[in-house]
Description:
7-stranded mixed sheet, 16 helices, alpha+beta
Amino acid sequence: MPHEGWTEIEPDIWVEIVLKGLKELFQHIPVEVVAGIGITGQMHTTVFVNKHGHSVRPAIMWNDNRTKDMIPEIKQRLISNEKSAHIAKIVSTGSPLANLLWVREYENDYYQQIYKLLIAKDYVKLKLTDTFTTDYCDASTSSFYDLHTDSWSPEVQELFGLNSNIFPDIKSAATKIGVLSENVCRLLGIDCTIPVVSGTGDNVASALASGCFQHDQPLVSLGTSGVVVIPNKQHQLKERGKNVVAKLTNMDSSIITQGTVQAGAKVNSWWLEKILQTDKYSQEQELISQDLLGENGVLFFPHMNGEKTLFASPDLKGAFLGLCLETTRSEMYLAVLEGLAFGIRQLYETMKNDSSPDYFTIVGGGAKSELWIKIFTNVLGYPIKRIETSQEAVHGAAILAIMGVKEIFTFPVTKSQIIYPDSEIAAKYNFRYKKYLKMTQHLLLFGGD
């Protein structure tokens, strides 16, 4: 973080870690049994690469806010053309389009060196295979992409004076894009041709691993950010939320609509570690009485580091409401847990499909909390499916490798648990949720300060 609100990283750090991991892996697993390599990574993080395949400056990460003053003008320019107007809905701080324009404006020497623009995982693929490619997921969320034609947008290029040559080829997620290069094989001490597939962004990979595409049910990921993912197989574009083209294979038309509470499950660690100064997560939750569920007089607004999907306000901050001299430690902690659940419900309701879901799947670190899962099922009013065997984005990457090599994948039966809402508690939370929405309206009047 070289300046407040900036987050960037030297992308070769990822490459060093990947190569070290592969080298260790091949010491335990015969290289001959490795049929392919899949890859996933954080979305939006932008890498600026020269013609020699080297990063010209640190990658600008997905949660970077340096472009916040540029976003209104970028949106207005996109809206000026009918064919690019839909892109204005998703462009925000951290978007590759905004990041590229910032580099052109403030670091033009670096801008002049750019040969290709890549997303995080694509840079690792470049170093593994010497190929410049991306997938439909990362392309469709870059703000350079036309969702109606499934291709790079010529209108965006014209509006902002961009050279079309900087955009890499787009490949479906399970497509083989190359093999480990001779140089990489030499570094790893192996003598074997291993194909690498295009891969995809972490949210699509998580959705794939959880069975989201298989069963067409919404997914909530409680990790660094709180993400709601709603799949459909008909390429149905939603007015609110980020429409992400999954396109796992060339014949696939799947799309997911996703929205994010940026603070996500970090509100939990913030409250415990920074405020209470404890790492006793389980013990603190055990102190919360089950009788308090749906009865808590304290409300918490979870958007502590800006919001992109619902309010498009990078400066938005969190808040407690309803504090009094009798407010307890447990009530405030419960409010934090409930606040994220309310925020997730609001996201879902603005992006949902026409048909009601059968259940929600919840993954990520926050899903390990029995209490939080109980809160979520009653706030959402639907059963929660919690997969007991870990199914993370990296599993989705492995599935894509199997699909790319074998051209088919059969999902194994995974052990899972279904948690159902309690009708009485759900009714109480429904009432509290309406109060949460009213609180939200009042807080937005104050803006981000």
